[in-house]
From TrEMBL:
It comes from the Bacteria. It comes from Caulobacter segnis. The keyword Hydrolase does not apply. The chain crosses the membrane at residues 95-116, 136-154, 190-213, 233-251, 263-280, 311-332. Keywords: Membrane, Transmembrane, Transmembrane helix. This is Transmembrane protein. The keyword tRNA-binding does not apply.
Length: 335
């Protein structure tokens, strides 16, 4: 079929097709523009011919408009025929999604902890929860945007991966013959690494904690006075955090280095138990000072806070003891 078909009959409709193809052509890359336009023209003419055979007459201008509309808007058609221009391609997308999940989990955790504490001292003021949600949403969008920009830069080769792209099967962790309750995925390692980095940034003063030492509550300001012992433990705590970060880094980058990770986990767990041992006799670790609060209300808040910290220390000690046993067992068995 030739293009002359469109000029036959009572209507000259070649201008519609030319307009349509011109709009598509303007959105196509110059190198492949002519070939794509020729292919698209053949498609349109074949569709016109089929419809005319079905109806036994030439198409009128309205029917040709409907046909071109069915084929698609020029922007959509150019997108189908042109090269893929997605920010994140199918090969990078799983890594992008993996990183976004980890970042959002860390952001949610960082927003939840101060909110829970603020609600506790402010007797459940729902406005604090709403404020946490409104603060989390822009943070989450910024993290997703940053992850997308990094993924797009990797996709286009602007960021070189170097050795990360030359991974080895021999460095992957062995598949356990039985269920391992203490096995961790790379996502777990990435989450731990992000959370540890956030803690180190706060501990060293690079970022501020979401709430300060003074909490503005509905019944007057409350000041949280931390025991001076924590200042004396600045370097030990920082060392333990760095050690945990190194262990998480092993899991993310070199999951096959199980022995090195087990040693780092054991050393960090022993240090964690020692830290609990040092902190326990010096309770209360945090004292609430609220001049405007009633004695009964202040005592209740202090009691809840003390109980929370005691439970936290007990849980931390138990977790670290279990980690020593579990990673020691794995190290002894060479898993």
């Amino acid at each position: 079929m030739s293009a002359a078909t469109l000029t036959e009959g009572p209507y000259d409709m070649s201008d519609l097709v030319d307009r349509y193809l011109g709009a598509v052509s303007a959105l196509l890359p110059k190198a492949s523009r002519d070939d794509i336009v020729a292919e698209l023209r053949d498609l349109i003419l074949n569709r016109v011919e089929d419809l005319e055979v079905q109806r036994g007459r030439p198409l009128d201008r309205r029917e040709l408009e409907d046909l071109l509309r069915e084929i698609g808007h020029p922007i959509a058609v150019a997108g189908r025929y042109g090269p893929g221009r997605g920010l994140v391609g199918p090969e990078i997308y799983p890594f992008w999604l993996f990183g976004v999940k980890a970042l959002l989990a860390v952001a949610a955790f960082a927003a939840a902890i101060p909110t829970i504490l603020a609600v506790m001292v402010d007797h459940g003021d729902v406005r604090l929860v709403l404020r946490a949600v409104t603060d989390f949403i822009p943070t989450a969008l910024c993290l997703i945007g940053a992850a997308t920009l990094v993924a797009a830069a990797v996709e286009r080769g602007w960021i070189k991966l170097g050795d990360l792209s030359r991974w080895k099967v021999s460095e992957l962790p062995r598949a356990p013959k039985s269920q391992d309750w203490f096995a961790k995925s790379r996502f777990d390692g990435l989450f731990e690494l992000a959370a540890t980095g956030l803690f180190i940034a706060w501990w060293t003063g690079m970022v501020a904690f979401p709430i300060g030492s003074v909490i503005h509550a509905g019944q007057g300001d409350m000041t949280l006075a931390v025991t001076p012992l924590l200042r004396e433990l600045y370097w030990p705590v920082l060392a333990l955090a760095i050690l945990q970060g190194v262990s998480s880094l092993f899991l993310v980058l070199r999951p096959g280095w199980t022995a090195a990770r087990d040693l780092a986990e054991i050393a960090g767990a022993v240090g964690g138990v020692a830290l609990v041992w040092v902190l326990w006799p010096h309770q209360p670790l945090i004292t609430v000072i609220a001049p405007d609060a009633t004695a009964a209300g202040l005592a209740n808040v202090q009691r809840v806070l003390d109980m929370t910290l005691k439970i936290t220390l007990w849980v931390a000690a138990a977790i670290n003891l279990v980690k020593v046993a579990a990673h020691g067992w794995r190290l002894a068995r060479g898993r």
